[in-house]
Amino acid sequence: MTVAIGSRVVGGGQPTYVIAEIGLNHNGDVELAKRLIDVAADAGADAVKFQKRTPDISTPEHMRDVPRETPWGTMTYLEYRHRVEFGRDEYIEIGDHATMRGLDWFASPWDVPAVEFLEDLGVVAHKVASACLTDPELLGAIRETGKPVLLSTGMSTMEQIDRAIEQLGTDRLVLLHATSTYPMEPEEANLRVLRVLRDRFPGVPVGYSGHERGLQISIAAVALGAVAVERHITLDRTMWGSDHAASLEPTGLSHLVRDIRIVEAALGDGVKRVFPGELAPMAKLRRVGA
């Protein structure tokens, strides 16, 4: 089964759908967001993804008044959430920029008004963040849009994933294996879950959303059959913010896309044959014919 997202098709037999997650790594700066969109486009990614919150709804009650040190001074966690959130005009600007650079763009809505906000802007899909997998009201609102859905499965049990998929349906779903540690150590990648998810939800395309350092695990996920790969991107991993350390810098993203395309070509079709390049060595080296 395949799922059409924007101008691309995601699923078996199609090129790996590479999502550059900008998330909140723009730090509330439109120009920084546009630079990150350029990084994604220059690297050959297929899409960029953001996060959209209505802070007064999506911020957990116990976190709202927690002090946070920021580049703009000490503020509460809720004030920080407001400070880095883009409004309609900013999203129109960055969305248009992504479109002009040939990228699909969408976001993870963290609450029902955020779904409505993104629908008004005409996003091509919705992404369910791992933290939101257990929110039935949000899942219901996303399903009602009729748009393709990418579902991340970090910090979740299989039973929770079952319930979320029951709520979302499978006809326009792409499932993403994930571990929500930032940054994630290799021992927590558990890439064999890719196969488990494919077997448990036949017909649903399964990809990988990674928070590790480096490229090896994401490339291995493609070799194991992941049809989509999502990675956070940044201009500099030392920048202020919670996601930068688990993000790829521009050169890293370019190398990831390059290596994914090489692995895709190397996987082949599984039919054993003698390739043209083998004919000369065979004539030279094989003493006994068939």
TrEMBL record:
Q: Which GO terms describe its biological process?
A: carbohydrate biosynthetic process
- So where does this one cross the membrane? none
- Per UniProt, residues of the PseI/NeuA/B-like domain are 36-272
| A single MF term (Gene Ontology) | N-acylneuraminate-9-phosphate synthase activity
Q: Which Pfam families match?
A: NeuB (PF03102)
What's the protein here called? N-acetylneuraminate synthase
Species this protein is from: Microbacterium album
